[in-house]
Amino acid sequence: MKKQRKNNMDLSIVVPLYNEEESLGELIKWIRQVIDPLEYVYEVIFVDDGSSDASWKVIQDLKVENPEVKGLRFRRNYGKSAGLHCGFQVAHGDVVITMDADLQDSPEEIPELMRMIREDGFDLVSGWKRKRYDPIGKTLPSKLFNRTVRMVSGIKLHDFNCGLKAYRNQVIKNVEVYGEMHRYIPLIAKQAGFGRIGEKVVQHQERKYGVSKFGIERTIKGFLDLMSVTFISKFGKRPMHLFGSLGTLMFTVGFFSALYLGMKKLWYVYHSVSAQLVTDSPYFYIALTSMIIGTQLFLAGFLAELVSRNSTERNSYQIAEKLD
């Protein structure tokens, strides 16, 4: 039996799960069949996201016969991002691999993922399920979602939401996963300064037990989260750049539109030409509304800037190395 040493561990496998009692026993056997012959010092961290079935009891039983098994259990269901965040906090491996517990991610991919991190120098390697065994109701929205994220983020990955990913330990200790942001870990990692992001085609298995825990609402939430993470990354510490710019633009357009209407009215009066009142023109109210909205946006940016300047993390930066 290999002795696990926290400060000299090769691999941590983080497995978030929710109501997957049928698959856990098969999963740990599959992992051991792949990893044990490689003689890695490793740990398997199951994160039970408040399961209502016997998943936690199964994890406890697996721990008895498999010393590399570790477990965390939430009091209620918080979501996959919370599971990954807590799993990352306790992971000690030089390489950290995440995978789903439903047997759709193959542990056979682990050795190559580790090689890509250790030898090829990637900070993060994301799996790509090129051939998927999911209904078109999941695959079609997924393709649209991934294409949108590629355009917005500039990261050339085909499958951002693949649960099978490998990380350098330094990456997972320097990124924060919250809400539903697990889909955007490559983007969050890139923003934290970890730009060597690779991709590997992985085998996708058909679901053997249970049903998927995600529905169509995942796609809607995904796009909203994309807007959120993009905004925070670009303007989180400088909100005035966004709100101030938009506010100034709208106020300027409204002001010059109103000025044009006023100058036009004066020209008509000077030349004794009959003309309607400025206030009778719908364009006057459009211009006035534009100036009001522009002022509000500018004030919103100013207030957001005050909040940002008083944040305790306003000067929090990622330092890769230091020489004294």
Shape annotation: elongated
Name the strands of the widest sheet in spatial order.
3-2-1-4-6-5-7
CATH superfamily of the largest domain: Spore Coat Polysaccharide Biosynthesis Protein SpsA, Chain A
Number of strands: 7
Largest sheet: 7 strands, mixed
**Averaged pLDDT:** 84
According to CATH, the fold-level topology of the largest domain is Spore Coat Polysaccharide Biosynthesis Protein SpsA, Chain A
Cα distance spanning the termini: 42 Å
Integer tally of domains: 2
Portion in helices: 40-55%
Rg over CA atoms: 27 Å
Order of helices and strands: EHEHEHEHEHEHHEHHH
Q: How many helices does DSSP assign?
A: 10
- CATH architecture of the largest domain, by name, is Alpha-Beta Complex
Content of β-strand: 5-15%
CATH class of the largest domain: Alpha Beta
Low-confidence segments, ≥5 residues, pLDDT <50?
Answer: 1-6
Structural class, judged by helices and strands?
alpha/beta
